[in-house]
């Protein structure tokens, strides 16, 4: 039976993982490395798995936030306003007139159009059969960042179950590998 200190370290991994899942300012990898350097490999792996569970809980919170936000009235009004602006811009361009907005707004329009295409591609990718693979890759390697992927997945057609399984598996792989690296040296 592990002592209270060991249980505390493992529980702290769960908390650090959950907090770091929703903020980019607290890297859970630093905790796992510290645990691996100062503890036995068994404790380090247990802490890494706890951190993976905490990370998954936090990412699922982001997933659900995005999923519920995509059906909110406020966002619906925002989308309607954007569609109205786009129609005004198209009408002005077709009439040969200057589109509405100042020079900065006009200069940033191509960036906005590019971002819309990228967002649509991300959501389409996560909605298809490659979605779980993208989450697994993101969870284990960190590219693309899982923080962004959690939001994209929440707005896609990906099931919550597929997201949880692949996120937990990816994060567990990542953190256990990090926990075992100090033993190699």
Notes on the protein architecture:
- The protein has one domain.
- Helices cover 82% and strands 0% of the residues.
- With 185 residues, it is mostly helical.
- The chain has helices at 4-22, 28-38, 41-69, 73-94, 103-127, 131-141, 146-155, 160-184.
- Helix 1 (4-22) runs antiparallel to helix 2 (28-38) and helix 2 runs antiparallel to helix 3 (41-69).
Q: Which descriptors would you attach to this protein?
A:
mainly alpha, 8 helices
Q: Distance between the terminal alpha carbons, to the nearest Å? A: 28 Å
Question: Level of helix content?
Answer: over 70%
Q: Cα-atom Rg, whole angstroms?
A: 22 Å
Per DSSP, the total helix count is 8
Sheet of most strands:
none
Low-confidence stretches: none
Which of globular, elongated, flat, extended, rod-shaped describes the shape?
elongated
On the 0 to 100 scale, the average pLDDT is: 88
The helix/strand class is mainly alpha
How many beta-strand segments? 0
Beta content: under 5%
* N-to-C series of helices and strands: HHHHHHHH
Task: Kindly give the count of domains.
Answer: 1
């Amino acid at each position: 039976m592990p002592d209270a200190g060991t249980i505390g370290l493992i529980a702290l991994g769960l908390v650090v993982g959950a907090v770091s899942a929703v903020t980019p300012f607290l890297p859970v990898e630093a905790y796992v490395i510290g645990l691996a350097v100062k503890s036995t490999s068994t404790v380090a792996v247990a802490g890494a798995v706890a951190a993976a569970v905490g990370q998954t809980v936090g990412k699922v919170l982001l997933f659900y936030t995005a999923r519920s936000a995509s059906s909110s009235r406020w966002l619906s009004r925002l989308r309607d306003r954007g569609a109205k602006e786009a129609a005004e811009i198209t009408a002005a361009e077709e009439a040969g007139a200057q589109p509405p907005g100042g020079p900065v707004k006009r200069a940033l329009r191509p960036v906005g159009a590019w971002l819309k295409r990228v967002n649509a591609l991300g959501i389409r990718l996560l909605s298809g059969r490659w979605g779980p693979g993208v989450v697994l890759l993101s969870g284990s390697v960190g590219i693309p960042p899982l923080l962004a992927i959690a939001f994209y997945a929440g707005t896609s057609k990906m099931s919550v179950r597929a997201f949880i399984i692949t996120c937990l598996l990816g994060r567990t792989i990542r953190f256990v590998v990090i926990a075992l690296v100090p033993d190699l040296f």
